[in-house]
UniProtKB/TrEMBL annotation:
Gene: leuS
EC number: 6.1.1.4
Protein source organism: Bryocella elongata
Protein's name in the database: Leucine--tRNA ligase
Binding site for ATP: K625
Pfam families: Anticodon_1, tRNA-synt_1, tRNA-synt_1_2, tRNA-synt_1g
């Protein structure tokens, strides 16, 4: 018999597929088929695929192939996230130009992808973000955002990684360090930067998550926390006029008569605090300011001791931010000697400066409520500031007594009530938050606020290998172009080309700034001299909309046609790593909303369903060069073939779990495929003969006239079809799908005698092998294409109809039912699948093992759970 030789079959089919550019082309959007848009996250062209990519792409490929066979119009694209720092590092290291390095990596990885048999429509969809055909649309979008005031420029403190020699977005800072350099602390620098106003969509980005059941809960939770919406209240405290107080002999901390709710008089400073717990305001016993608060700076001018203390605190905070342990620094502070008036109570509170208050959060000032806030409690205890309880459990009835023996600080807010809070005493805490906020607004000394953890997206990068930002700075600085002197490059002049032959050095600062031909530009408005922006865009811009370009990859008059995008979007299935939960998956949601608002598309969200696959590990550990446990896809394919590698990647674990790669396992799958090959090749002539006689569509063989052996095989076959079809639509447990095919193949193999002797009819044999080949097609495309042809089919298996499970054929003729006596298993009986209750009870009673258990006892009653269980209660 012929031997299974993937090294011969796979390249042969690959070149046939390559010769047919329309093979995986989706139909025109005007066609009648239902659409299915399946996207795997595009790779960075580092030079070689790793085995994790193989897993990710194989999951998507199996699904795309299955959906094609189910009759869907499938768009299955691929592209390259081709800008970014590694290309510049390669230039530094080996002197290779980033462009040349990137394009040759793309070529190499494309060869690998083809070897794996991934069914991408390369000709129709391929995009590479480093090409001007692509990045000119990044520039176009930038200009649209500029028009919509969604792109703006400002000077701000930014995250800076010294190794990247560039700015990082907040999303690229992980635990105080750079996302690419896990042990390089991020520094803060003050720089002029371009930002995208993603915060404008903060509410929608957050609320939209509730309407996305097709996204994993863990991703939605991560996004919710990242966006971090919190409601709060700003309350303004007048700073007491200490000289006036002194004059009246008034002692601070006693209510100044008539001062309730007072705003600071003209010329008198005030402090606005930000609190999420305005309901605790009767418990405020001091005001704490950030060392960089404007008032502190003011007071420090005339108070040298204060100035010295504050300087130290500023330095200490900067250091703590850098090391990322801001939350754990020892709290301390210094009194300013000034006082502020609580507008709710009229009480006078001492004003302090404290090292745990951030200048750039809220208003940089807080009211300190030690009884109900941990940090304030720690601080108040240290300095002997008063602690006043104003919140109690609802069970306390809201009595005005603070002798409660609950440990302080008492944090609970749900189910809590206010005590010691004047007219608000007895109110539920949550309601009081709302009412007291409204009250403060009404009285004019406060306002309710909504704040987000999400900050605007800083997109300027001081790097070469990225999209040039399409603005120039006119040296004549026209009026009327806001901000002064910033002139957008007109659409007609796009793309602003990234120059070649730029020296990449380790020096700080944008490499483009050292290219005079690039920098020196003409102002499009006045024709005068202008300096071109030399920063490039964050590469997350590229990946924010690339999947839209797939629908119309060759368009050179627009980023894509709205008509096409509206047909294909939202993506039906998006597949990729969970590490993109915050970065790419928030940015691309933002981009979608912007494109919707400029009228390009209709969808609110980019993808209906998101799947995040597990990692591939080796010997229980994440793969890394330093551990020497990296599995190379090329090596696997070389040894076992692409089909075995793919099938193993799906067989070894459910796709959402981590997969421990074992070469033995790939070898095992390869033996299984060899068995499929041998058997199918042997019976292919039977299939050919039967199908030739019946026409291409053969009806499932009926039970009528079947021998028991034939009926049993058909039953397993149809059960397998039902199971795999369900796995694809449901939980994607391809590991059990493939296991089911293995069981089927075992059963076929042990019926070889019966097939050869004629006991199993040719029509049954034909149906078995035809369906087996179809069932394996999503997993092992090369082998099944070969077998399909060997069976005499001239049209491609790619669009052959997926087999349909016949429920009658799949039905077991016998079922097993456990029999219990007093709840303990006595035996499992076999009965006809359609047996009635009487028969089942009688069979149970007649069973020998059940009889032994019953012995001389009396049956009180017999409980029957349909199709599941018989339980006899005995005395
Ligand atoms: C009084 C209070 C009472 C507070 C209480 C909490 C509990 P999140 O939820 O993280 O937004 N805060 C406000 N601005 C601050 C700053 N610049 N630096 C340090 N802390 C600041 O936290 C909001 C709470 O953090 C605010 O509500 C404020 O303390 C504090 F029982 O006000 B709270
Ligand atoms: Zn000008």
């Amino acid at each position: 018999p012929v031997r299974y030789n993937p090294a011969e079959i796979e390249p042969r089919w690959q070149s046939r597929w390559d010769a047919d550019p329309a093979l995986y082309r989706a139909e025109d959007h005007a066609g009648g088929k239902p659409k299915f848009f399946c996207v795997e996250m595009l790779p960075y062209p580092s030079g070689a695929l790793h085995i994790g990519h193989v897993r990710n792409y194989t999951i998507g490929d199996a699904l795309a192939r299955f959906m094609r066979m189910r009759g869907f119009n499938v768009l299955h694209p691929m592209g390259w996230d081709a800008f970014g720092l590694p290309a510049e590092n390669a230039a530094l290291k080996n002197g290779r130009a980033p462009k040349e390095w990137t394009l040759s990596n793309i070529a190499a990885m494309k060869v690998q992808m083809r070897r794996i048999g991934l069914s991408y429509d390369w000709h129709g969809t391929e995009v590479a973000s480093c090409l001007p055909e692509y990045y000119r649309w990044n520039q176009w979008f930038f200009l649209r955002m500029l028009e919509k005031d969604l792109a703006y420029r400002r000077s701000s403190k930014v995250n800076w990684c010294n190794l990247c020699a560039t700015v990082l977005a907040n999303e690229q800072v992980v635990g105080g360090c750079c996302w690419r350099h896990e042990d390089t602390p991020v520094e803060q620098r003050e720089l002029e930067q371009w930002f995208f106003r993603i915060t404008k969509y903060a509410d929608e980005l957050l609320d939209g998550l509730d309407t996305m059941p097709g996204w994993p809960d863990k991703v939605r939770t991560m996004q919710r926390n990242w966006i971090g919406r919190s409601y709060g209240t700003e309350v303004t405290f007048a700073v007491a006029d200490d000289t006036a107080l002194k004059g009246t002999g008034f002692s601070p901390s006693v209510t100044p008569p008539g001062k309730e709710g007072a705003l600071a008089p003209e010329g008198q400073p005030s402090i606005t605090v930000f609190t999420t717990r305005v309901d605790t305001i009767f418990g405020a016993t001091s005001i704490q300011l950030a060392p960089e608060h404007a008032l502190v700076k003011e007071w420090a001018k005339t108070d040298a001791a204060l100035a010295a203390d504050v300087d130290k605190m500023v330095a200490e905070q900067a250091a703590a931010k850098q090391t990322g342990d801001f939350g754990t620094i020892e709290k301390h502070g210094v009194s300013t000697g000034k006082h502020a008036i609580n507008p709710f109570t009229g009480e006078t509170l001492p004003i302090w400066v404290a090292n745990y208050i951030l200048a750039d959060y809220g208003t940089g000032a807080i009211m300190s409520v030690p009884a109900h806030d941990e940090r304030d409690y720690e601080f108040a205890t240290k300095y002997g500031l008063p602690i006043k309880r104003v919140i109690a459990p609802a069970t306390s009835g809201g009595a005005n007594d603070d002798s409660g023996d609950l440990a302080l600080p008492y944090i609970a807010e749900d189910e809590a009530v206010l005590i010691n809070s004047g007219e608000w005493t007895g109110e539920a805490a949550l309601e009081a938050q709302e009412k007291m906020g409204l009250f403060a607004e009404h009285k004019g000394f406060g306002k309710r606020t909504k704040t987000f953890r999400l900050k605007d997206w800083g997109v300027s990068r001081q790097r070469y290998w990225g999209t040039p930002i399409p603005v120039v700075y006119c040296q004549n600085g026209h009026e009327g172009v806001p901000p002064k002197g910033v002139v957008p490059v007109p659409d007609a002049q796009l793309p602003v080309l990234l120059p070649d032959n730029v020296a990449i050095t380790a020096e700080n600062g944008s490499p483009l700034g050292r290219v005079p031909e690039f920098v020196n530009a003409t102002c499009p408005v006045c024709g005068g001299p202008a300096r071109r922006e030399t920063d490039t865009m964050d590469t997350f811009v590229d990946s924010s909309w690339y999947f839209y370009r797939y629908t119309d990859a060759h368009n050179n008059t627009a980023p894509f046609s709205s008509e096409k995008a509206n047909y294909w979007f939202p993506i039906d299935q998006y597949i990729g790593g969970v590490e993109h939960a915050i970065l790419h998956l928030i940015y691309s949601r933002y981009w979608t909303k912007v494109m919707r608002d400029i009228g390009l598309i209709k969808n609110d969200e980019p993808a209906t369903r998101l799947f995040t696959q597990g990692m591939v590990i080796k010997d229980g550990a994440k793969m890394s060069k330093s551990k020497g446990n990296v599995v190379s896809p090329d090596e696997m394919i070389g040894k076992f073939g692409a089909d075995a590698t793919r099938t193993y990647a799906l067989f070894a674990a459910p796709p959402d779990r981590d997969l421990d790669w074992q070469e033995d396992g790939v070898a095992g799958v390869s033996r299984f495929l060899a068995r499929v090959y041998r058997l199918t090749m042997k019976y292919a002539p039977v299939v050919k003969a039967v199908e030739h006689a019946k026409g291409d569509e053969i009806a499932p063989s009926a039970f009528a006239g079947q021998t028991p052996a034939g009926a049993k095989l058909l039953r397993t076959l149809h059960q397998t079809i039902a199971k795999i079809s369900e796995d694809f639509s449901g939980r994607w447990h391809f590991n059990t799908s493939i296991a089911a095919v293995m069981i089927l193949v075992n059963e076929i193999a042990s019926s070889e005698g019966a097939m050869d002797s004629g006991e199993i009819a040719p029509a049954t044999i034909a149906e078995l092998f035809r369906s087996l080949t179809l069932l394996l097609a999503p997993f092992a495309p090369f082998l099944t294409a070969e077998l399909w042809e060997q069976m005499g089919h001239t049209s491609s298996i790619n669009h052959a109809a997926w087999p349909v499970a016949d429920a009658t054929l799949a039905k077991d003729d016998e079922i097993e039912i456990p029999v219990q006596v007093n709840g303990k298993l006595a035996n499992v009986i076999k009965v006809a699948a359609d047996a009635d209750e009487e028969t089942i009870k009688a069979t149970a009673l007649a069973d020998e093992k059940v009889q032994q258990r019953l012995a001389d006892k009396t049956i009180v009653k017999t409980i029957y759970v349909k199709g599941k269980l018989v339980n006899m209660v005995v005395k």
